[in-house]
Specification:
By secondary structure, this protein is α/β, with parallel strands linked by helices. It has an 11-stranded mixed sheet with strand order 1-2-3-4-5-6-7-8-9-11-10, with helices on both faces.
Length: 244
């Protein structure tokens, strides 16, 4: 089923999406999307939705189970507090991608903005994953408590850092993989590099294979020898500043 977003405000477009899903649609195509907010917000469904255009803020927020494919760029707050499902972005992403994300996966072909993965968390088998094909801005993984962030740096200009400053500030759980090196001047005090062992590669490799297949990337570019793995140096980095 197709829905034309031309001339519709965000509320009306989202109402039409929910009406279609309630009526039993399992696959939707949204055309001419331009800044419409909250697409996929709070959806509890296994439906697949293709978004042609540039959706607005909070795409897929609080989502459970749906698969969203965006044929364009996305704005801020994608996958905000998402619990499960998948978001595939064939362009670039804005700021606070994956804020407080609790599960599911986001794959972005291009760059992402600031504060990617802030407050990400994991519980038992619910492990959120974000893979960024390009680079990311400042405060990547800020206060990260669980899950996996991956930065591939594909197409990055020679000499341009893969990540911004204050990388992993306040991080106390999870892990970050960067395809390349990260300068000490980029790292927050709470994160450090460790060996890229077989166990870590076994966790990472399936996501890289899916990324390569989804976006037509040569898998040979994504071998384990190219990656730096970063983890928190403490699970309670600010413990000494509290009164208890």
């Amino acid at each position: 089923m197709q829905i034309d977003a031309t001339g519709l405000d965000a509320r009306t477009l989202n109402e039409r999406v929910r009406e279609a899903l309630t009526a039993g649609a399992e696959e939707l195509v949204l055309n001419n999307v331009c800044g419409h907010r909250y697409i996929g917000a709070g959806l509890v469904t296994a439906a697949r939705m293709t978004v042609n255009g540039t959706p607005g803020n909070d795409l897929g927020c609080f989502m459970e189970g749906a698969r969203l494919i965006v044929r364009g760029n996305v704005q801020d707050g994608v996958a905000n507090t998402m619990s499960s499902g998948e978001i595939i972005v064939h362009g670039r992403a804005g700021d606070v991608l994956g804020y407080a994300m609790r599960g599911g996966r986001v794959l972005v072909r291009g760059d992402a903005g600031y504060r990617v993965g802030i407050h990400m968390k994991a519980y038992e088998n619910c492990v959120p994953v974000i893979v960024i094909g390009g680079g990311a801005g400042d405060y990547l993984g800020e206060y990260m408590a669980g899950g996996m962030l991956v930065v591939l740096g594909l197409g990055r200009e020679q000499g341009r850092p893969l990540v911004g400053r204050c990388f992993g500030t306040g991080m106390h759980g999870g892990e970050i993989f960067v395809r390349g090196s990260v300068g000490e001047d980029r790292l927050g005090r709470e994160v450090g590099a460790v060996a890229m062992d077989d166990e870590a590669w076994d966790r990472l490799a399936p996501h890289l294979a899916d990324f390569a297949r989804e976006f037509g990337v040569d898998p040979a570019l994504l071998g384990p020898e190219r990656f730096t793995r970063l983890v928190p140096v403490s699970h309670r980095p600010y413990g000494k500043i509290y009164a208890y």
